[in-house]
Amino acid sequence: MSILNIKDINLLNDKKKNKILSELNSKISNYSAEERIRWSLKNLPCTHIMSSSFGIQSIVLLHLMITQKPDIPIILVDTGYLFPQTYNFIDFLTEKFNLNLQVFRSKISPAWQEARYGQLWKKGIQGINFYNTINKIEPMNDALNKLSVQTWFAGLRRDQSKSRKLLSYISIQKKTFKVLPILDWSNNEIKKYLKINQLDIHPLSKDGYSSIGDTHTTSKHIPGMLEEETRFFGLKRECGLHEDKI
């Protein structure tokens, strides 16, 4: 199979795009995560990148990816409000695995944002959405454009939240192929992979956190809570990076 051309596919109407995507998803649905990555690297166009939040379980896809493509650009969108433990974890993993880490940020510093807009995360869903737009969506768009990205790998999984239940292994987002190699993995499979490969986990995982984002919109997991309720005060799960699909 020749390498798919994302530019040609983006010229098609939605019905034809969805037909191609349906065929691709059917093809790789029975593949292992390693096989999905191998197939995608071979058949989906360069530039390939992976986005990572360096959160609780991010090391799993990170390890899977660099095992096959050690120099793949790892995109971190830094809001300036990550936990100190997250920044230390990023430094540790970058040095340990010699990661090709590329960091993108808002053009407006956190201090300037607060001076201009106040603490947006305290202003309800509209404030949170605006915060996410300037701190996450716009920097990611900048990364996709500057690196001329055509294939984007990410570590989303269906059992993380209701909003991810219907995701596909391959989609088109922002006119770019989006690949989710571990989409069907359970928490038990994640733990098994961590154990077999003796991988370092985020230091806050032992402190009651099941999902990690910014300090001001992440809370510890309390028994009875859904994982998605630990983010954005339970008002929403997605920050917007993984939305806008055809």
- Seen as an oligomer or otherwise, the chain set is single chain
Beta-strand content bin: 5-15%
| CATH structural fold name | Rossmann fold
CATH superfamily: HUPs
Write down how many β-strands occur, each being a DSSP E stretch of 2 or more residues. 6
Summed up, the domain count is: 1
CATH architecture: 3-Layer(aba) Sandwich
Apparent shape: globular
CATH class: Alpha Beta
Q: Give the neighbour order of strands across the main sheet.
A: 3-2-1-4-6-5
**Sheet bearing the most strands, described?**
6 strands, mixed
Structure report:
By secondary structure, the protein is an alpha/beta fold. The chain has a single domain (6-234), classed as Rossmann fold, CATH 3.40.50. It has helices spanning 6-10, 14-28, 33-43, 58-68, 84-97, 110-117, 124-146, 187-196, and strands spanning 48-51, 73-77, 100-104, 151-153, 170-173, 176-179. It has a six-stranded mixed beta sheet. Strand 1 (48-51), helix 4 (58-68) and strand 2 form a beta-alpha-beta unit. The chain is globular.
